[in-house]
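Lab notebook page, bench 4
Experiment: in silico fold of construct C2
Operator: M.H.
Input chain length: 666 residues
Purpose: comparison with the prior construct
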Amino acid sequence: MKKTEVKKLTLEEKISLLTGADNWQTESADGKVRQVFLSDGPSGLRMHDLKNNYATIKATALPTCHVLSYTWDTDLAFEYGATIADECIIHGADVLLGPGVNIKRTPLCGRNFEYLSEDPYLAGVFGAAYVEGVQSKGVGACVKHYCANNSEADRCHQSSEVDERTLHEIYLKPFEMTMKAKPWTVMCSYNPINGIYASENRKLLNDVLRGEFGFDGLIMSDWGAVHNPVRAVQATLDLCMPHRDDSAGLISEAVKSGKIGEAEIDERAQKVIDLAEKAERAAVKRKVTTTAEERHETAVKIAKEGIVLLKNEGNVLPLGGNAENGGQNKYFVLGELSEKPFISGGGSGEVQTAFVQKALHEHIAEKTGSETKYRNFCGWEPNWRDIYGDAYEADVTILPVGHDSSVESEAHDRSSLRLTPEQEDMILRVAGYAKKTVVIVYAGSAVDMSRWIGAVDGVVFSGYAGEGVNEALSDLLCGKANFGGKLTETFPLSLDDTYKGGRTSDGMTDLYDDGIFVGYRYYDKEKKEVLFPFGFGLSYAKFEYGDLRIEKTGESDYDIVYNVTNVSEVAGKEISQVYVKDVLATARRPEKELKGFSKDLIAPHETKTVRVHLDISAFAYYNVSLGKWYAENGVFEIFVGGSSRNLPLKGKLYLELPEDTQYSVR
């Protein structure tokens, strides 16, 4: 297509480009600009039928993004994005609406399953890798939801009241990091931030996103997030989605009255043209490099790496009949989730798959060669005598439980972290008769297990692990693969242990007075015990840490070097984590912050030397007075280990930057 010059378009044509043509396509300016097709994500292609907006195509249902982050593997994040991009190419989507890099401020958020972490550094690392994967195939990514959209309750009107430092350190940081991957587009959120809607917030869209972060792509609205098209243009929002009948007229009147200059219209229209031409150039080079079977195998692989083993008392797992775990050879699986596991939360991120899974109990029987009995538990009239008898006779009883997509979904938040009372009762009743009990939890965020976890021997957090969950889960349960996933969010003991019990809003505003102390930062500050800490996950292997060395490689660059030894008879992957603490900070800072990690496959009795690089960003905080990130000279402690609460290695370094960079006296 011939390059379109914005100056050669009429004012009417330019204005038409600033709103969608329909629900999913951009306008064409009377055929002069290529239309761009947008599609939902981020856990697979959720593409709508243009003739029926309520129907979506069938696609590969990958594990949702929280399970992806549990892998702690950025190569898998790249592959994840590239896999979805292949299906975008097949079906003609130019831009995928993902990833979502919003912070998990509260475990109640209904959309947490779509998001990556409570930690901004980790969310940013994974967001960037996801974008690179999508765009490596010539499909554009759309980073969302910008910004401070951390709950679904009244998301369209409730103002997120956030101070400047907290915004930059916690809620903007993942977006800042993801911009390094040069996404084609960014989507603004529904909510006001400090009283101004995101779609009208010139400070955040222009000054921060375009200015500080250097974003040069297109900014679109979330669907229906534009309240005033004129103010949106003034804020540098380029594209209002979806189509609205009054948008062009309102903008035209604003130009005529002098509220908006035609130069502003040209700038916004140029961004739409640039996106269209980028899509046109990319379309010529797009090539599908995977089959449907290979995309399914990717879903299985990511699920295997992301499912987390939380409890394994007495080595109840793996199943399989070795002497160490008591010669288990008879299993009982109770509940229909064996046949129809929950694989996603609800809303625009729920992918429809045509893949039909083999039941978990069938996989277990096949992979262990052992007798495996199954009952489809009926909650209305269960035959408890038979259930108790089956549990009593089995060596291990497996109970799949969890939340479906009506509980964890876009547009509303959870009201509780607990399973239903019926599920909790069932666990306790059956565990009372079972020799050993393993609970499988399908959910999109933290679950309060306090009522029942002491009564069971094993807990596996499957999360929403996509269409390959039963294949992946059975391999892990049966020892055909080893658990390696670790949590990227804290599991509190109960909702009461979270900040303000998760209730931070009054219906009009959501006051972010927890500041920078979000997730593990909050639990550390308050010295609260948790059920499972950030970064936690068990393995069939056992690892020990040693020989920490801190090597200075530049003025503010350091390599953190340490050994990890597998002291077991089983090969396994260990995710080692590096945290940093500013010991004598003049500003209040967290007890520690994640600043690096490494995932390493280590053979039995092998020692691996791991090297994690830290640059100046590992030591800096956002100084509001300076309006920038600032690192103070002084002593910093370095912690290394297997989770935020298991850090056996500790060292320190002295940051000594030139005197003319320092504003404080230490």
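Observations: The CA atoms of residues 334 and 375 lie 5 Å apart. Residues 322-326 have pLDDT under 50 and may be disordered.
Next step: discuss at group meeting.
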